[in-house]
């Protein structure tokens, strides 16, 4: 039976209790913060979600060359922090001393068409990198669903895509260059200081400022993405099957509506006709629903029950770098933990139960993905195939209460936090999760004995 033709605003009016309709009048476009920079005080830096900020003493430094960057680092007393796109929710960037941007260090330096490698300046944004690699006949094997990130930021925080067959982004690093605390420029690889190379592949920027990276890629390719809505319990039950069949798959869950917005991706031949359309999840409507849910929490269950009406079934076929990303304009704060894949469903069910049983005021969906095992020293997926579960809260609402409620569930299942997202673990507990924790600490102290690259948050992580 075809769905009735209704505007989304009209659908909200007809599906919600009448008492909620007047509140909807106040959820216009002007009320929805679409992550612009308006209102930021002069001299202040804020992350994308506007939940982390700082006032660096000398403003934001914008070196245009590696030599200029090295000079700034060598002269600074610290803490020195580098920022890419500001998409980390954890406080990895803030400093009141020297904050520098690597935005000018962008573009592909060289490539090897036989080995399918490319050396890329670390400030390159992912949304620019995809087309540049495609011109060389290459593509990233996988990438996160946010492509505004800088390459340095995505690698340093161990960003990932979705799919048990694919590992996190830094797994493809073949070599890298960084500026150390004393201004030296080091080139590291599996054959050039291999211990430091292993430590630097995922380092949160604590070993130095990443300036250049060599990645092993693959030939460019097309993806077919199918999106659809189904009951949440069915999506969770079928997810293991999708993982065996698909190149990538994931779902976004609306727990109190028992609804899941699902994505399944498969690779298609280069001759397949392209059908690029706008992504199905429309940010304006998502923002309106989040605004209404914040003002009237008693509408959340109804909003989640009708969430499927916001998202028509779609099929998109296009270049991988067009299909992977999801539009994210309405800011939120996020917690994500990785648990062993076999514990994923049980952990997820407990998180859902906590949200529902405690009637937590959250409209934004949970995200459920699979990530392959790797051997990176500080990777959350080290040594085990993992499921990642992400919890989001609209940026105008208190996120700490929600995260405090669900984080102990992740601990129960031996979860490891995403380095760029909110969590409360410190060194004493983190050390137990990583077999090479001691090796990393030794490498960090060798390159930065005075802790120049450590802000207070990072000191808590590495017990300095």
Short description:
With 464 residues, this protein is an alpha+beta fold. The protein has helices spanning 8-15, 21-25, 66-75, 126-135, 151-156, 194-200, 232-245, 283-295, 300-305, 307-310, 320-323, 344-357, 400-412, 427-430, 437-447, 456-462; strands spanning 45-46, 53-54, 60-61, 80-83, 98-101, 108-112, 117-121, 138-139, 173-179, 185-188, 209-216, 218-219, 222-231, 248-254, 259-268, 314-319, 332-340, 366-371, 386-394, 416-417.
Structural topology:
Layout: H1 8-15, H2 21-25, E1 45-46, E2 53-54, E3 60-61, H3 66-75, E4 80-83, E5 98-101, E6 108-112, E7 117-121, H4 126-135, E8 138-139, H5 151-156, E9 173-179, E10 185-188, H6 194-200, E11 209-216, E12 218-219, E13 222-231, H7 232-245, E14 248-254, E15 259-268, H8 283-295, H9 300-305, H10 307-310, E16 314-319, H11 320-323, E17 332-340, H12 344-357, E18 366-371, E19 386-394, H13 400-412, E20 416-417, H14 427-430, H15 437-447, H16 456-462
Parallel strand pairs: 3-5, 4-5
Antiparallel strand pairs: 1-2, 6-7, 7-11, 8-12, 9-10, 9-11, 13-15, 13-16, 14-15, 14-18, 17-19, 17-20, 18-19
Helix pairs in contact: 6-15, 12-13
């Amino acid at each position: 039976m075809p769905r009735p033709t209704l505007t989304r605003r009209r659908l909200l009016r007809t599906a919600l209790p009448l008492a909620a309709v007047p509140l909807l009048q106040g959820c216009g476009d002007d009320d929805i913060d679409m992550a612009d920079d308006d209102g930021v005080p002069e001299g202040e830096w804020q992350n994308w979600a506007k939940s982390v900020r700082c006032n660096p003493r000398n403003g934001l430094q914008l070196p245009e060359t590696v030599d200029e960057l090295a000079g700034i680092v060598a002269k600074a007393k610290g803490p020195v922090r580098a920022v890419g796109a500001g998409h980390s929710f954890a406080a990895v960037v803030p400093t009141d001393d020297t904050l520098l941007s690597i935005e000018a260090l962008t573009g592909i330096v060289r490539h090897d068409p036989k080995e399918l490698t490319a050396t890329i300046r670390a400030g390159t944004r992912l949304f620019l990198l995809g087309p540049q690699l495609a011109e060389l006949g290459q593509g990233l094997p996988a990438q996160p669903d946010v492509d505004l990130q800088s390459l340095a930021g995505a690698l340093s925080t161990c960003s990932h895509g979705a799919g048990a067959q694919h590992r996190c982004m830094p797994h493809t690093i073949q070599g890298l260059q960084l500026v150390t605390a004393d201004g030296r420029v080091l080139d590291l690889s599996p054959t050039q200081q291999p211990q430091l190379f292993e430590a630097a592949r995922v380092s949160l920027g604590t070993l130095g400022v990443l300036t250049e990276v060599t990645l092993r890629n693959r030939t460019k390719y097309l993806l077919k993405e199918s999106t659809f809505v189904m009951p949440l319990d069915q999506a969770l039950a079928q997810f293991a099957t999708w993982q065996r069949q698909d190149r990538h798959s994931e779902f976004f869950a609306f727990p109190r509506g028992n609804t899941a917005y699902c994505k399944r991706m498969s690779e298609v031949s280069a001759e397949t006709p392209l059908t690029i359309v706008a992504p199905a999840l429309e940010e304006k409507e998502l923002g309106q629903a989040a605004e209404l849910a914040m003002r009237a929490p008693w509408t959340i269950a109804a909003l989640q029950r009708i969430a499927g009406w916001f998202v028509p079934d779609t099929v998109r076929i296009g270049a991988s770098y067009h299909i992977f990303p999801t539009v994210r304009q309405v800011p939120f704060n996020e917690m994500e933990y990785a648990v062993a894949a076999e514990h994923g469903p049980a952990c997820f069910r407990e998180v859902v139960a906590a949200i529902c049983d405690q009637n937590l005021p959250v409209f934004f969906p949970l995200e459920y993905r699979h990530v392959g095992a790797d051997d990176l020293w500080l990777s959350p997926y080290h040594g085990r195939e993992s499921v990642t579960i992400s919890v989001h809260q609209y940026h105008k609402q208190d996120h700490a209460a929600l995260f405090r409620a669900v984080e102990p569930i992740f601990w129960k299942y031996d979860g490891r936090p995403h380095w760029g997202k909110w969590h409360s673990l410190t060194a004493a507990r983190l050390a137990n999760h990583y077999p090479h924790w001691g090796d990393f600490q030794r490498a960090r102290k060798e390159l930065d004995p005075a802790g120049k690259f450590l802000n207070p948050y990072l000191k808590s992580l590495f017990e300095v």
